[in-house]
């Protein structure tokens, strides 16, 4: 019927073709002007040119920064307002810690100074740091510390599920709220889709303040929507912090031996807590438009802490410059002996990819540990497309075979370590709210090295010769997936 119509009125089809062509040209101009990175620009251009109509729809759903003004104006104002309230604490912490440890930190001065100037992130001393392996260790420690909370508990999570561990934590939070402890809970509406309205209502009924960071109106169109809050943070009484890769879900405590989940988290007690407090409260005010009274119960410098670890946070989001990406590449380029990286998703931005190749070609011991099988065929294939180039540049790659490794860690030389929430992909490096914890300490570095070497026992190392023997159709699909990697 449509064919007969256009045969009868061919000029209508011509008009539609001209309109469509004009729309594609104008949209291409918009993409070129609005998209900051070359790789992402090319990916969107390929979409609208080679996938007619559908490519345009994909761009308008996932590519347009509809919230740009909201994020880059209102959120920035909130950040600066709260920063001015605590500026004295941040300056005192940073410069005292830096001056006392200047010689020890000489190799990392560029990274440290960049984080302080670009993101108000202070270097802090007097911290205790404990490495928590998997959810089994994390949640036992979390529940114990929350039971002892006196003034407030702040939680911010990408995934919070209405399951055994989610309800166990919720019941304890309700109990603490009834004791008079202030409990505030931020969650990502996409990642925490399984939290359930009943559990949220139950928390609110107990006096707990609950809010999504960004509300989702049409969930079916939100699978890869920008600006997700991918952080995992708990702050207790402004002194204790939990952060890392572990969300609130039963899968992180490995209830099923057939689906082993390997992950990493940190417990920190010390002066670094108030920067995590700053991150939480800026997102809280952004989400709720409610500004708490910022007393010393939330922010203070504590001389009584007995820890000796030097800690600094690298936090990125749609309200900042790509702080994690730049600090990660800076730390890698500062290496003199080794760089060990663990990540579940390796689809790196060029800055980090080139830094890794550079230090490997310089003769350093560079190792990358990734899951043998990811949780997405396209993401997995895109990651595979990078491995041959890394192997050619002397990077050793290890496939973790015991289960899914979700840790996001990096070890540089003997006294720098990073444990965080950010994956090595475009989304984590440029779009999501993320936070990595940097620890300048030999003891922590050695512990993380021991964990890395232990995990290597459950790995298979890739061989360049064997990797090159993959079927050509797989290689083609991997490079095709790589074209879409800036959009993942």
Overview of the structural elements:
The protein is α/β, with parallel strands linked by helices. The chain has helices at residues 2-8, 10-34, 38-50, 54-63, 68-100, 109-119, 134-147, 164-178, 197-205, 273-288, 323-333, 350-361, 377-392, 426-431, 442-456, 464-467, 472-483, and strands at residues 124-133, 152-157, 182-187, 209-212, 232-236, 240-244, 261-262, 264-270, 309-316, 338-342, 346-347, 365-371, 396-400, 404-405, 409-412, 416-420, 424-425, 434-440, 459-461. The strands form three sheets. The chain has a 15-stranded mixed sheet, with helices on both faces. Strands 7-14 form a two-stranded parallel ribbon. Strand 3, helix 9 and strand 4 (209-212) form a beta-alpha-beta unit. Helix 3 runs antiparallel to helix 4 (54-63) and helix 11 (323-333) packs parallel to helix 12. It is globular and about 75 Å long. It starts with a helix and ends in a 5-residue tail after the last helix.
């Amino acid at each position: 019927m449509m064919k007969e119509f256009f045969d009868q009125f061919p000029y209508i089809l011509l008009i539609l073709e001209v309109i469509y062509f004009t729309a594609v040209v104008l949209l291409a101009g918009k993409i070129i002007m609005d998209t900051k990175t070359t790789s992402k620009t090319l990916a969107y251009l390929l979409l609208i040119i080679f996938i007619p109509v559908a490519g345009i729809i994909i761009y308008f759903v996932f590519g347009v920064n509809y919230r740009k003004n909201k994020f880059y104006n209102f959120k920035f104002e909130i950040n600066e307002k709260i920063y001015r309230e605590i500026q004295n604490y941040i300056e005192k912490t940073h410069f005292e810690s830096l001056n006392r440890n200047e010689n020890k930190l000489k190799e990392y001065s560029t990274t440290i100074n960049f984080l302080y100037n670009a993101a108000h992130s202070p270097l802090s001393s007097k911290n205790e740091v404990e490495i928590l392996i998997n959810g089994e260790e994390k949640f036992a420690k979390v529940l114990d510390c929350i039971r002892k909370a006196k003034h407030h508990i702040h939680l911010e999570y990408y995934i919070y599920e209405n399951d055994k561990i989610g309800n166990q934590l919720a019941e304890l939070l309700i109990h603490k709220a009834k004791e008079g402890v202030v409990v505030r809970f931020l969650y990502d509406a996409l990642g925490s889709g399984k939290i359930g309205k009943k559990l949220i209502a139950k928390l609110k009924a107990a006096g707990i303040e609950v809010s999504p960071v960004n509300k989702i109106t049409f969930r079916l169109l939100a699978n890869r929507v920008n600006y997700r809050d991918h952080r995992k943070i708990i702050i207790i009484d402004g002194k204790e912090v939990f952060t890392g890769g572990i969300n609130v879900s039963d899968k992180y405590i490995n209830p099923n031996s057939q689906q082993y989940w390997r992950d990493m988290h940190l417990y920190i007690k010390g002066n670094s807590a108030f920067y995590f407090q700053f991150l939480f409260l800026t997102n809280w005010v952004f989400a709720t438009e409610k500004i708490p009274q910022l007393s010393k119960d939330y922010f203070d410098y504590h001389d009584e802490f007995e820890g000796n670890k030097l800690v600094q946070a690298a936090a990125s989001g749609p309200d900042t410059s790509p702080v994690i990406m730049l600090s990660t590449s800076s730390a890698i380029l500062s290496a003199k002996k080794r760089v060990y990286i663990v990540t579940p998703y390796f689809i790196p931005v060029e800055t980090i990819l080139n830094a890794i190749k550079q230090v490997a070609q310089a003769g350093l011991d560079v190792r990358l540990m990734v899951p043998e099988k990811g949780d997405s065929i396209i993401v997995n294939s895109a990651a595979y497309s990078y491995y041959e180039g890394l192997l050619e540049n002397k990077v050793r790659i290890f496939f973790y075979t015991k289960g899914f490794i979700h840790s996001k860690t990096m070890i540089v030389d003997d006294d720098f370590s990073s444990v965080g929430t950010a994956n090595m992909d475009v989304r984590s490096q440029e779009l999501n709210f993320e936070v990595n914890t940097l620890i300048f300490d030999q003891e922590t570095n050695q512990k993380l090295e021991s964990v890395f070497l232990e995990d290597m026992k459950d790995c298979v190392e890739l061989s360049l010769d064997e990797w090159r023997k993959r079927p050509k159709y797989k290689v083609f699909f991997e490079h095709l997936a790589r074209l879409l990697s800036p959009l993942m």
